[in-house]
Each structure stands twice: as C-alpha cells, then as structure tokens.
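Data availability (excerpt). The following record was deposited with the supplementary files.
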Amino acid sequence: MSNRKVAFGKIVGAHGVKGELKVLPYIEKEEMDGLLSNLEGLLKEFYIDDTPYDVKGIKRHKGVFLVKLRDIRRRDEAEAMIGKEVFVERGTLPSLPQGEYYAFEIIGLKVVTRDGNLLGTLSHIFSTGSNDVYEVMTPEGEELLLPATEDVVLAIEPERGRIVVRLPEGLEPEGSGK
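Predicted structure:
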C-alpha cells in the first residue's frame, strides 16, 4: 500500500460549536456514493499542513463531509482551518482497476501535449453522461475544456505529475502547424 498523500478535499466551513469541519471532497459524486459505505472505517487520519489529525467521525451532509478531528474541539479552531486542503494516504482508499484513478488523484496534474508543450493544470472534471470533460487552467489563466476520451487523453501519469493529450482539431494553438 502506498503512503503517498493525495488531496482529498478542501475545508470550506465549520459546523456546529464542537469543531466539526465541512470538507468539500475532490471526489466525483459517483465515487463518493461508492466510498461512503466504508469511509469512516478507512480514513483514520487526515493531513492538514502536513500535520496528521485523527479522524473521530465522518459523514456526508449536503454535498460535503462533516469531519470531526480529535484535536479540533471548538468552532473557532475549525474556522481557523477554512481554506486549507485535506490530504489522505492513498493506500487507505480502496484500490481501483488498473488505469483508473480517483478524480482527486489527477486534479492538479500538469496537462501536456505529445510534444511536451504545457497546456496548463487540470483544475476540475465534469461528468457529462457520455464522457468526462477535463477543465484545464492555462498559465495565462484561461479555461480549456478537453473531452476525456481515448483519442484525446493519451496517458495519465500521476507518478510523473502529468496527463498527456492530443488536442482535438480546432483547439491547437495558433501557429502550431498541427
């Protein structure tokens, strides 16, 4: 099992007066539904700013997870965590079939062309029914939408921090000659 830490979500609020955190997961709804049944048993520790926190409880509530951490006991302590990312050890999550990834494992990867040209960073994944769509934020702050199909996504290489793509016709940068 891997001890590599992956971004699980972001703290977006406090809940109640006893320090519960609202964590917006970097998990697609379909993944969340499958994970939820045994999530509490799997996630024993969250990492925030590289500090481990024991998970005392976790449950889904209106699109977020309500998380109770052992060392966060008051609302003001929870509020101080708002905006921080939550990480988990990859090995604590159920394995997926070869070549499949949790959305949060690939969000944040660099997106490059076959020639190695940087297009940007994967910032979001949309499910459309027929295929997913990758939202890529370019270095210029522009949004690039790519269909996550076999003819566009050539390789997903988390170990190298990148996704290799073939741009669909009409999306090639001007002057590329491709």
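Summary of structural features: The mean pLDDT is 85.
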